[in-house]
Amino acid sequence: MENFYTGEDFTMIRIAMGSVQDYEKFLQENQETEEFKEAILVASNNLYETLEKKNRVSEATKRAILKYKIRNAVRCTPYGLFSGVGMIVSDEKTLLKINTAKVSKRARIDMKWLFKYIKEMLRDERIMSIVKVRKNEICYVSGNRMINPYFSAKGTAEEKTCDSFSIRYTKPVQFVMEICREYISYEDVLKRVSREFCIEIERTKIFLEELIRSEFINIDIMPPLLNTDPVQYVIDKLGNRLTENTYISFLRELNCKIAGYNMTSMGEGLELYKDITNTMKSKIDINECVQVDAKINLEHQTVAKTIKREVEKTVNFLSRLAAGYSEQDYLTQYKDDFLEKYGYDTEVSILEMLDNNVGIGIPANYKNSQRKYVDYSIRNEMLDALNHIIVNKAIIAIKNNQEIIYLNDSDMDRLGKHEVRYETLLNSLDIVVQPLAKDKKDIDKGIFTLLLSGCISSAGAFNSMGRFSDMFWKDITYDNQSIEYEEELLGKEYIVAELAEIFRTGRTANVDMNMNSVPYQICIECNPCDGKKNISLNDIYIGVDRKNNRFYAKSKSLNKKIYAKTTHMLNNFFGSAAYRFLRDISSLATKFQIGEIVTSLGNSEWEYFPRIMYGKTILRPARWKYENTKEKDFYTWNEKFVKWAKENRVPDYVNYTRSDNYLRLDLRKQEYRELLYYDSLKDDVITMNEDLSSEDLVWLQDENGKKHCCEMVFPLDKKKKVHDDMHNENFLIKEKPGFFSDTSRNLFPGEEGWYYYKLYGMSGREDEFIGIELRNIVQKLSENKIIDKHFFIRYIDNRPHIRIRFHVCNKNEFSRLFFDWLIEERRKGMVTDLSLSVYERECERYGGKDLIRFAEKVFEMDSIFVEILKEKKYHHQLEMSDEEIAIWSIWGILDSFGLNLEKAEKWMSSMISRSDYREEFKRMEKTYRQSIYMKNNMSTEVQSAYKNRNKTIKAFYSGIQKSGLDNAVSSTEEDIMSSIIHMFCNRYMANNSWERKVRALTRHTIYATLSYERFHK
Fold this sequence. Notes:
Elements: E1 5-7, E2 10-16, H1 23-28, H2 34-43, H3 45-52, H4 59-74, E3 83-91, E4 97-109, H5 111-121, H6 125-128, E5 132-135, E6 140-142, E7 145-148, E8 165-168, H7 171-179, E9 184-185, H8 186-197, H9 201-213, E10 217-219, H10 230-239, H11 246-262, H12 270-281, E11 290-300, E12 302-304, H13 305-319, H14 329-341, E13 347-349, H15 350-353, H16 381-399, E14 404-407, H17 409-413, E15 428-436, H18 440-445, E16 449-458, H19 469-472, H20 478-490, E17 494-501, H21 509-512, E18 520-524, E19 533-534, E20 540-545, E21 550-555, E22 560-565, H22 577-588, H23 594-598, E23 608-609, E24 611-614, E25 617-620, E26 623-627, H24 634-647, E27 653-658, E28 661-666, H25 670-679, E29 685-690, E30 700-701, E31 707-708, E32 710-718, E33 738-739, E34 746-747, E35 754-760, H26 766-783, E36 787-797, E37 799-808, H27 811-827, E38 833-837, E39 839-840, H28 852-874, H29 882-896, H30 901-909, H31 918-923, H32 925-932, H33 940-963, H34 973-988, H35 992-1015
Parallel strand pairs: 3-12, 13-33, 14-24, 16-25, 17-18, 17-22, 18-19
Antiparallel strand pairs: 1-32, 2-3, 2-32, 4-11, 5-9, 5-10, 6-7, 7-8, 13-20, 15-16, 15-32, 20-21, 21-22, 23-26, 24-25, 26-29, 27-28, 27-29, 30-31, 34-39, 35-37, 35-38, 36-37
Helix pairs in contact: 2-3, 8-9, 10-11, 11-12, 26-28, 28-33, 28-34, 29-32, 29-33, 29-34, 29-35, 30-35, 32-35
């Protein structure tokens, strides 16, 4: 079995504060300990206040307390003071031991509170007089408007908040943006605007305050989210400019109090915590003012490598399913739109691309997208096949009263030989496991079971540790080593940049705020930190790599591709479209996600499904599903549920599961069933997994010999791949043109004689339509001198259609004949719908404005060539395969650009691996070699169209050479040549996979022809 990943030695451990031995006793106690009270206070101030009241406690409150008691004993997921984290190292022996008496608290001001406090501070004129401001880099100009596509409210958003802002791009706005390219004193801006436009100071203040409120300009005291203590940052920024201020003094005092609280032992910080939160609420009254995490002292920090080896084995087994992975449909559709508008060989500003007016808009499924929603379901043929095997095993297991299904490598082999595409694998990931064993010695001997736990995996090593990174930053160098390895993995054409953004809900900043060693940063709506090179959004361009047909981001100033990473566990639904898109194309929507695969194993509809294991790893625990009757009273529901549980042999201990959250229940006891009843009132189906946290499977001990549940987060890195012959040490990224919008090149219907139609309805009959129907009307219009130019492309935009441009000489006659033809096509069922659109000339893609008319002539002759080919195919007058025709046509394009066989082979080999479609080529090598010089196998009409097309390309190429190309605003000669090949493939077949195939076959054919001619000289 191929190994794709290897584990890091550093591992995070997550430990429940309560011991499993004291679990039952603790649940029965009516008097809560001081430690538990403090944990409740940190988790829920309202619940704590209810507890403190001496009145009768409600049943709902009792249930809430019970849930926290369960969490305290068996939930390891970090949550306030109910669990803690630590760092351990994989070694030869397990010496791990914890000391719960020495727990380090890490309290810090909640970021939502801080954002609101900063907003309040800015009402003070003394504060405003010393701050600095700068243009918000996410804002851009569109026509006579300035757009802010993402309004973050700087983390203080309430429910009814605008998503974006648009203002008139007046001269005062333009002036402010010009002088605020870098941070400048607000007072200076105020005076300069007032002086420049003769506006009184008070009116100027209102104007600038509105620009600040709508976030067209940012303020420097908003803290960075990376490598920064946010409160100290605000204090330092203001303290250096203002000797004394009540706001600054308050923050300093608050910092001192929090530092004091962090020194207290568990259970001893109640009064100080209440004092801190009451003080904070006197300024900004929100529910949670302080965020608290716990670090558990580890007397010994090693765990046997046996666990890491088993994790590696499991991950490598599951990674074989990556061979069947396809990127998310919504991104594929968006990529098709990108290629239609810009092509492979142009890089477009991310801000312009996402604009609905000048770009292609926001992708489907993003917030504020104007596109139709696309289903998120996982598409993986290998997973479907493996699930078929699992279901068959489950049927046998249930029939034989067996509780476990075992998967093995031979099961994966049965799926067939599939090559895992290296680029679909994440560069690194975290895997969360719960080691189950009797004691430490058994772990050393390899006698243990691993349970994939909670949120099974993340899309990057150490992401699970992100929000705790400041707690370990001084102790270890794990992060620096991981980043260096990732840079080596990506290669010299890439840089790694940490992505940071202030979201509308400021509390999320508690999670995505982190310390890391990533050398670059991309900061949206937040300030960059010191010590990292900042990449502006204005500097980021998007392209599609022709070799792997995937999106990439690129820094124009650095001429490097960007791998945008995030060191946190927030999902990709947060933030601006730019933030989400950069995350998606780097990992989340383009890479194989193990967590998604594991949760899809087995049949999710069955009432019962057995445990699924691979080796020593429980991939999925046994699961029961109860169709919730939603009775109005507990006792009726309870009677039905107990009967069902008995009939289905549901164990006493289960985990009530919802997404990655779970609650351990003892179904023997009524109070637990009541808890389940009330918690699941809105659930149509109640899902329960078998519980495996019994005392005899818990091995981690504290200083008193008590056992604690634990989880381990193992980071794994993708192994380096030996690159093929198209990569070398001296690799340098070729500069590609940036796409710059120019509305003057967008032609409305009739402008300069151009009309652009989208014709829908010929799905499955496109070849017939192109070769017969379109060819007939074009010949008629041309012969009658009604048009002198036309060209078409195929396209899929929700539904397949043909896009046709006509250059019209006689508008009245065109309208009459063309629309008569359309009515006839409707009768034939060929055209059922149409639209008339703006013709956006692709000047940059084809050499600039001066050369676009030459390019349009090439488009016309290539269209006529394809129309004739399709006509002959339709009448069975063309015996050659589509692949032979494509090789012949592509070679004609290369030859027209002045490339001989040797140069053509060299150019194509720079983009195509010699292993692609090699087996197919070997079977047809002789036939394909004959395709290049296909002289006598074509009709005179086809040969003539071929020669005319190539003659036009040669004239275009001559024009390119004479005019010279400005590569800052135009494609290179090679890119133009590649675009013409792409457009032929689109007109002929309109299938990106087929295009990649025929490009590869053409490369192999040229190479083989060159070798053959050299040998037979």
